[in-house]
Amino acid sequence: MIHLVRHGEAAGGDQADPGLSDLGRRQVHALANRLAFRPVRQILHGPSRRTSETACILTEILGAGATPSELLADRTPVPSPERRGDYPTHRWEWFEDVPEAERDPDGTALTDAWHKLWFEHHDEEIVLVSHAFVISWFVRQVLNAPTATWMRIGPIGNATLTSIGPNIAGEPVVETFNAEVVLPI
Fold first, then answer.
1. In the chain, at which end, N or C, are there fewer CB atoms within 10 A of the end residue's CB?
2. Is 130 in contact with 72 (CB distance < 8 Å)?
3. Which helix (H) or strand (E) holds 166?
């Protein structure tokens, strides 16, 4: 079972790589408590500060090891000029504002990342901590949905849980999607 987790709420401000806010830490603690009875032994997380801090909190509660992975870096699938037609024209302008460092033409890197992660980890219980667009793309891959579908999946909330496991034929299926954890008052 692969558990996809979006990082907790980021701290405000103009930081390029913010950590978690107080609310974000509480969100992740609540999510960790939900996962506490699962046999999770490994947590992979993206290189950003908020995914690292999320993984750190999960590690403390789950007792699992955490490892950074570039496969879970913050990426945005953007269409190459040849593939713009895969998206509605009203989305084209939005793509122009995607920072160069986050651009993943045609989602190629994310597709490769998903296939590698599924192949290596589908038979174990693992948590992958990343970002909303990454999780949306992975879910789109599992559903074998049209390219632009990732933009209509969600919104993926902070510290939410999406679980993907194999069906009887060994194919990935979405078992839980974007499940929020209720915070104690």
1. C
2. yes
3. strand 161-166
- Where residue 151 sits, what CATH number does that domain have? 3.40.50.1240
Residue type, 100: E
Q: What is the pLDDT along the chain (185 residues), one digit of tens a residue?
A: 999 999 999 998 667 889 999 999 999 999 999 999 999 989 999 999 999 999 999 999 999 999 999 999 999 999 999 999 999 999 999 999 999 999 999 999 999 999 999 999 989 999 999 999 999 999 999 999 999 999 999 799 999 999 999 999 999 999 999 998 877 66
Q: How many separate domains does the chain show?
A: 1
Q: How many angstroms separate the CA atoms of 1 and 47, rounded?
A: 22
**Gap between the Cα atoms of 131 and 128, Å rounded:** 10
CA distance 183 to 25: 11
Angle between helical axes of 22-35 and 49-62 (0-180°, round to 10): 40
Q: What SS3 state is found at 101?
A: helix
Q: Which domain holds residue 127?
A: 2-10+18-179
In a domain, 69, yes or no: yes
